[in-house]
Amino acid sequence: MIILLSVIFSIIAGATMSIQGVINTRLSDKIGLYEANMFVQATAFILSIIVMFILGKGSLASLLDVKKVYWLGGILGIIITITVMLGIKNLSPTVAISIILISQLLVAFLIDFFGILDSKKVAFEWTKCLGLVLMIGGILLFKFKTIK
Known about the structure:
Elements (H helix, E strand, L loop, with lengths): L1 H30 L1 H23 L17 H18 L2 H22 L11 H18 L5
Helix pairs in contact: 1-2, 1-3, 2-3, 3-4, 4-5
């Protein structure tokens, strides 16, 4: 049951990331890139505080006990939001998000393979590399126009 819920959560995350990328890009077209980023991050911050008070069971004091590298999530969030908006603006949502997915899979593979950030090491499988190559081929098919 936990595996099924995790799959469902992953599907929801992927769908909402795609929708959010397009929404953020359209917002940035109207109010500016960095202004849109500030609005997105601020609304997420406010909502996070509300959700923490309602559902939170942890302790913010425990931040002092974790590796400092794990504090970089917020910085990475800004980088993600801005670069997704720039990618979608200059490519199409399909192409930009496809490239993002390939990048995510490649980095996740390296994290698994080398056990980066305290992740459990996962053995190399050539099928994962083949999958990435096939995805890159799919992007090329999307990007290049049909020859008439």
